[in-house]
Amino acid sequence: MTDTKPQVFLSYAHEDIGMAKRVYSDLKGYGLNVWFDADALQAGEQWPDRIQDAIENSRYFLALLSTQSLTKKGFVQKELKTALNVLDLFPDSESYIILVRLCECRISNRRLRDRQWVDLFPEEQYNIGIKKILEVISPESFIIRHEPALLTSNEVNMMLREHGYYDHDRNPSGKGIVHHYKEQPASDGAVVRDDMTGLIWQRAGSEKEVAYEEVDEYIAWLNRTTFAGFSDWRIPTLDEAMCIMEADKRNGELYIDPVFQVAQPRIWTSDSYQGESFSNAWVVYYYGGYCSFLLLNAGYYVRAVCSQQ
């Protein structure tokens, strides 16, 4: 599908490349269109011109700030000066430059020092900072991570609390999120579009439970046959699967909207469990209203998802 999300330019000092890669990976995982020189530049290109063009054509300029980036001379300062020139083209009411601090550092630039910034430190504040960035860049939609991850129980608990997802055991006070569901019939099965999250779901899913090693085969079949007209189906992440969890039983005995079929009461996700063993995957139980991890040789259903254009 064509990427229509606004471009975000990621600026950083070479000394902060490790954190820059992490931020880039996480924002891409949430579906953002991030311009990152380490990924975008090709061998032999005139990189100064490419970088300037990328800044001028980006809707947002994400500046990763640290002691290194604020004090060193070099191209990172030129990037910031270019961004300040672009900022002059925006109305005062609109955001363009987003300041992101990687450590305790002082912003001395007179045009930036009075602007609110986002902190990605200490480590326990990192996910909160990423969420604040998402709220600025795409406030009209609820952006959810779609790249698979290795998650601990604590990380899952934090994710549930941050998004307000309901989980009978881990976050019983969660209210869930408001969805904008639209069911669309297709010759080979109905799909459900959610304009709030930008996701497209199978209304049903696999007809029978499958072991985890069989999930990829099922997804490949959906894409090979362009199920419902789409060829980029995937297994949902735990974030995605939990976002459609309701705080009450709304579909018979299931904590899920009636727009979905009830024949898939528990589904696999693409996320793995980080614990004593790595042979586990996170699964979601709509009939009990919770998530947990399970051995990969167990049998569960698949409800595939893809992203809207």
Architecture per CATH nomenclature, i.e. the level-2 architecture of the largest domain: Roll
| Major β-sheet annotation | 5 strands, parallel
Spans of at least 5 consecutive residues with low confidence: none
Number of helices: 9
Mean pLDDT: 90
Q: What name does the CATH topology of the largest domain carry?
A: Mannose-Binding Protein A, Chain A
User: What percentage of amino acids are in beta strands?
Assistant: 15-25%
Number of domains: 2
Per the principal axes of the C-alpha atoms, what is the gross shape?
Answer: elongated
Which labels suit this protein?
309 residues; alpha/beta; Rossmann fold; Mannose-Binding Protein A, Chain A; 2 domains; 5-stranded parallel β-sheet; 4-stranded mixed β-sheet; 9 helices; 13 strands; elongated
Characterise this structure.
The protein is α/β, with parallel strands linked by helices and 309 residues long. It has two domains: 7-137, Rossmann fold; 150-307, Mannose-Binding Protein A, Chain A. It has helices spanning 17-29, 37-40, 47-56, 67-71, 75-87, 126-137, 153-163, 215-224, 238-243; strands at 7-11, 33-35, 60-65, 97-101, 117-119, 150-151, 181-184, 191-194, 199-202, 266-273, 280-285, 290-295, 305-307. The strands form three sheets. A five-stranded parallel sheet has the order 2-1-3-4-5, sandwiched between helices. Strands 6-10-11-12 form a four-stranded mixed sheet. Strand 7 (181-184) and strand 8 (191-194) form a beta hairpin. It starts with 6 loop residues before the first strand and ends with a strand.
